[in-house]
Specification:
With about 300 residues, the chain is of the alpha+beta class. About 35% of the residues lie in helices and about 30% in strands. The strands form 3 sheets. A 6-stranded antiparallel sheet has the order 6-5-16-13-8-9, covered by helices on one side. A 6-stranded antiparallel sheet has the order 12-11-10-7-14-15. Strands 2-1-3-4 form a 4-stranded parallel sheet, with helices on both faces. Helix 4 links the parallel strand 3 and strand 4. Helix 7 packs across helix 8.
Amino acid sequence: MRIHVILNRSSGAVFSKKPHTGVQHVRDAFEAAGLKAHFTVIKGKGLKEALLRTLEYKPDAVVIGGGDGSINLAAGLLSRHDVPFGVLPVGTFNYYARHIGMPFDLFEAAKVFAQGNIERLDAVEVNKHIFISNSAIGLYPYFIRERLTLQGKRGWIKAPAMFAAFLKSMARFPVIEVGISANGKTRLVRTPYMLVGINDSSLSPVVLGGGDRSSLKDDLFCLYVCKCSKRLDLLAAMSKVIRGKVDVVRDFEIRHLDKCVVHLKRKHVLVATDGELLQLTPPLTYRSRAGLLRVLVPPARRD
């Protein structure tokens, strides 16, 4: 199997302190698994250009080492060429790697790629933008925007930037009114936070198994609408999400759908998709894309 590996040195703890050592560690893992791969190393921007150059070599598969934003970009581009991809869990949160059951040990991950087990998995799109983990409107996009501002313009490191951004977002507490159309019915709701996830674990990605639907290939996505109308109620709900003890009945409305349309009374809306920000024009049309992705996964991955 001709595998091309693209590593984003700006992503995660593997490359944060000693980038060159981290890259060598990945090379050692592939060599130990008996894989002769071609490596491309980028820093920050340049992933799309690296992917397009890689496709010229007609690889059997492309392995991406980066955060969920990098995986998102690669999945969308590679799906248009029907090229399989693998996920090297070197990002900060590695949500998609968790969804597909990838081992976090790099040597074990390389063994998965060597086995060459490829499955067709679902993705979801919002206004034709593909995402592979989750998309949100309301509180979460504002949190991301504030964090990126603190990191980019003020030079903060990630952890304190996340904490400060969270406090500012909670102080603002943006409650939005949306109309949700699905299965021939439309209803209005007021919520601080709405999320569309690829499966049930999208709400609590750090602690998997919180939901009853873990499939990534049944042509459905999960719609979560937060019911909390007060800050303290939302803080309590978020605490339960982090601990993997989500009270769906009390704190969230959850529905399994293959399509829904979200109406908002505004010209543009800030939308988070796999941790990246988009400015989209309502209505937002969410649609499942069955079997869109060809993904290298562990043979024993449970569906």
